[in-house]
Amino acid sequence: MADELQQTDVGNSQEDEDNKRYCWVCYASDEDDETAPWVKPCRCRGTTKWVHQSCLQRWVDEKQKGNSTVKVNCPQCGIEYHIAFPNMGQLMLFLDRVDALIYKVCPFVAAGVVVGSIYWTAVTYGAITVMQVVGYQEGMTQMEASDPLVLLVGLPTIPIFLILGKMVRWEDKVLRLIRASVHRLPFLKYLLPAFRYESSVGVSTTAVISDPVNATRVLCGALSLPTIATVAGRLFFPAVQDNLTRTLLGGVSFLVVKGIFKVYYKQQQHVMQSRRKIIDYQQVR
Ligand SMILES: [Zn+2]
Ligand SMILES: [Zn+2]
Asked: What is the pLDDT of residues 104-155, one digit of tens each?
């Protein structure tokens, strides 16, 4: 009986009632459509053994979603469908290979381009920073005198160190230190008004306002530091002749002033948080 079925699996067939074929996709039988070709693509027996060639192709298309290399399995028995393609000649085979190769290589090329662009941006940024900090002429002379390899490795580390430095949250440590000192030495409260409300019974249980590291903020802050340092140096230390010293002085004073404001701001936020009250509901009529 099985052999009989195999011989008649394509095209019209005269099945007897016992072996009536039903398509598990469209539920049609031989009587509904006498011409549609059938296939039994897997190990399934019984009602899910037969399926229309066209119905199964539609189902496979749906599973593959346009990617003809995706393997499709029978939902019942799990057997992978064997899909045969007609031989389209050597050229088609070659084009197919080329296509697959391009598909595989492109992500690496794209990643390389992105990494390369970031690297060259970092090199350029490093060079600009050197000229900004030590002066255009001096920077140019120094870089021209340096080994190119040293420059290619050294210059991109400048933005990296700036970003790493920006991620050191020293203000938080200072804030914690001041709070701890205020608990131990209450007279400090009169020197630092912002800490007046710091409870003297111990460290407040109020959650410290979380201040998550924000990537764009770190990036902008870190990369603008040399410019700010140069400007601050020119503004506040015009008497200093050496470019590097003046910029360093400008940078350090900027960081210190900014740190003081940040500590103050965070402490005030903390005070606001620990002295907040939830108000009674007022019936509005
Ligand atoms: Zn069907
Ligand atoms: Zn199956």
From this structure: 999 999 999 999 999 999 999 999 999 988 888 888 998 999 898 999 999 9
Query: Is residue 263 situated within a structural domain?
Result: yes
Positive or negative CA dihedral for 63, 67, 70, 72? positive
Cα of 20 vs centre of ligand 1, distance in Å, is 14
Amino acid, res. 248: L
| Separation of CA 77 and ligand 2 centre (Å) | 4
The bound ligand whose nearest atom lies closest to the alpha carbon of 74 is 2
Same domain, 175 and 283: yes
Q: Measure CA 151 to chain center.
A: 30
Domain assignment of residue 127, given as a range? 86-167
> Does 81 map to a domain?
no
Distance 132 CA to ligand 2 centre (A): 71
Residue 116 token pair: 């390369």
- The amino acid at residue 41 is P
Q: Is residue 78 in some structural domain?
A: no
Same domain, 224 and 246: yes
What is the pTM for the complete model shown?
0.60
Q: Which residues pair with 51 in a beta bridge?
A: 39
